[in-house]
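Worked example

This section walks through a single chain of length 396. The input is the sequence exactly as stored; nothing has been trimmed or padded.
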Amino acid sequence: MHTDVCVIGNGAIGKTVALGLAQAGHRVSLLCQAPSSAKVESASAQWDLRVYALNTIARNLLTSLKVWDALDASRVAPVTGMVVNGDGARGGKLEFDAYGAHAEALAWIVEDRNLNQALDAALRFASNVTLVSGRAVRLGADGQQALVELEGGDSLTASLVVGADGAHSWVRNQCDIGIDYRPYDQRAVVSNFSCELPHQGQAFQWFTASEGIVALLPLPGNRISLVWSAPELLATTLMQETAGQLAARLSALPGQPFGQLQPLLPEAKQAIPLALIRAHQLVGPRVALVGDAAHAVHPLAGHGMNLGFSDVVALLDTLADEAARRDCGDARVLARYARARAEDVLLMQLATDGLERLFNAQFEPLRIVRNLGLNLLNQFPQIKRRLMAHASGSRH
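Given that input, the structure is written out below as tokens.
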């Protein structure tokens, strides 16, 4: 089989780039598991542990692909405000709100399952996409095309291969693209709870230094989603405790506004290892990397998935060029994509890594300075608006 583009990856980013390229007129093969035919589950079903805080760039992209309106809207929660709390008895505080940002919302909380089911439904009706089940075992390229060999002897050829296969990317390894890797010695413990008091669309975050970073994100109704970036030893303890014990810990957070928390039934928790990953190159011979295959960042800002969607936007824009129409895997075309993403990715990695280092330090004078910094920044609405515009993607 020969197509213009072969996308390798089974997650939301891979499905989105395949759908976007197909709708732009490219012939696409998507090497992944076959999309599920199951309908989106009702709001009474268990809430997904993996949620994403999607920004304006992600929402606009999904809207343009007719995916956003296919989401189960009853399971999507807009974030209308956010409060960032420092650590210690006199911890600083930084507040953001959508009104101050002149935006409909700062972000939208979407479950992984909800997003993937909407993408699967769109892919079933995409005329230019061929879904291929199988496992790739070798990737090669020459001056004319890339070759993907599958287990069992079948093969795919394409002008361009897009690696959207996650942080441990097989595509990246096949291209001998090195990475900078720094483990944070933390795991993101995720779970969902019902809350006694309405959250009113507000997200809260606590930088606790010794116990990591706790984020509580709004879900529809009186429900919240937890993302606790906890040091390894604490993460192990949190996973061994019952969800009820975890809820008691969260109820005791200073200034916690949700009242008593109760685990959603059935009780469920998950722990995800955290690391900084920076690919030395975003492209290789007839290969482009997107999403976690290209970069992974600390979840403290909630922008890992948004970086991936920005990759998709940049790749779609690059391949819309006339030269890319003739050969979408041409090295000069891919170089333009790499240049388009370099600054944005680097800034997000530096920001998230720097904040993690800053708030993880337990040196008392530094703790005082960072709390004062939060309070000082909170007094400058113009700077806050710029930060919110950058984070939401509305600057574009």
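What to look for: The longest helix spans residues 331-360.
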